Amino acid sequence: HWTAACAPYLARQIALLRPRFILCVGRISAQAMLGLREPVTRLRGRFLDFRGLPLLATYHPSALLRDERLKRPAWEDMKLLRERMNADG
Asked: Contact, 29 vs 22, CB < 8 A?
């Protein structure tokens, strides 16, 4: 499967970059990173743990184009990320 093939590369990139946060944009990335099958509607709006890093899942931009009602929740996710980034310095 493609996620298994890409996992070592992604792990190496994360180790090199040492991000303070991870933003997963869309269901596929969130499910792959977390190893879960929950829909993004259940994953978004809160920070989840990914190997000790705070991970925030939100809607994919294409979903926002298809359904304008998702724009407000996605904006709230971005504000949550900004708030956390500012708090953690």
From this structure: no
- Predicted confidence band at 25 (pLDDT cuts at 50, 70, 90)? very high
pLDDT band at 88 (very low <50, low <70, confident <90, very high): confident
CA distances from 3 to 6, 18, 28, 29, 73 (A): 5, 21, 10, 9, 27
Helices (H), 1-89: 2-17, 27-34, 40-43, 61-66, 71-87
For the entire predicted model, the pTM comes to: 0.92
Rounding to the nearest 10 degrees, give the CA dihedral for residues 52, 57, 62, 67: 180
Two structure tokens written together for 77: 């996710």
Structure tokens at 55: 């991970």
Q: Is 58:25 a contact under the CB 8 Å cutoff?
A: yes
Cβ proximity of 46 and 67 under 8 Å: no
